[in-house]
Amino acid sequence: MKIGIGLPNQVPDMRPSIIPAWASQAERAGFSSLGSIGRVSYPGLMDTVALAAAAGATSTIGLISHIMIAPAWPAVLLAKEVAGIDAVSGDRLTLGISVGGRSDDFLVDGLGPRDRGKRLDRDLEVYRSVWRGEVVDGASNPLVPTGTRDVPLMFGGSSPASFERMARWGEGYIGPSVPVGMAAQMFDAAGSAWKKAGREGSPRLVAIAYYVFGDAERGRANVRHYYGASGEQVVDIVDSGICAGPDAVRDAVRAYAELEVDELIFIPALADIHEVGRLAEVVR
Question: Is 4 a domain residue?
Answer without folding.
Answer: no
